[in-house]
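Reply to thread "Modeling small-molecule complexes from scratch"

Following up on the discussion above, here's a worked example others can learn from. I took a protein sequence and the SMILES for flavin-adenine dinucleotide and predicted the complex. Inputs first:
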Amino acid sequence: MTFAFGSEILRTASDGQGVEIVYRDGEGATRTARHAAVVVCAGIGSREIARQLGDRINVYPVKGYSITVNLLDAQSREAAPQLSLLDDAAKIVTSRLGPDRFRVAGTAEFAGENRDIRECRIRPIVEWVNRHFPDVSTRQSVPWAGLRPMTPSMMPKVGPGRRENVFTIPATAISAGRCRPRQPNSWPNPF
Ligand SMILES: Cc1cc2nc3c(=O)[nH]c(=O)nc-3n(C[C@H](O)[C@H](O)[C@H](O)COP(=O)(O)OP(=O)(O)OC[C@H]3O[C@@H](n4cnc5c(N)ncnc54)[C@H](O)[C@@H]3O)c2cc1C
């Protein structure tokens, strides 16, 4: 297996026998690869790649935000929860990342493919930590924003694509090249 880290898929095409992928590699060179089977797991980018392979994947970027609180002092490390939490009313989730980091995430924002980190979205998350865990210092919190690949029903869809050599798996958006000749039920049920 060969990994092509830092590559960007520029275009793809399927002729039924295989899939051609034109991509820019990590050094900036444009390359072409041909594969009998491909797996596309490009998040919100899956929509465009699948379109080129003849499939319509109805995914949309839904922006979420998180902060990672660096637990710099013993009191903060003691006070931050060890278990993952879900505050259903506030739509906030938390995870303890090792001894000295506490991640808190939330928010669903419709802003297209915009990854800007907006202070007005980060502030409520910091305030949530201050309110529920007053002994955790949020003095050093690292903000982040990412795009969730979402379907309208929020359910992943897994199945063969229209082309003979294409599978679509938008599992919150994954699509995959077909690995075997098409047969009924040849693709494992993900549920
Ligand atoms: C703030 C936030 C909190 C979340 N919390 C949770 C949680 O608690 N639990 C949970 O289960 N999920 C959570 N999610 C959702 C989770 O992150 C996503 O569902 C998951 O990352 C989707 O995985 P993926 O591999 O399908 O897509 P992604 O993680 O989006 O990966 C797609 C990759 O494809 C690459 N790509 C796209 N286009 C191209 C191209 N043309 N060429 C080359 N590469 C390309 C992208 O650069 C990216 O690396 C959260 C998301 C956010 C934003």
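What I'd highlight from this example: Residues 108 and 182 are 38 Å apart (CA to CA). Helices lie at 46-52, 74-79, 119-132. Questions welcome below.
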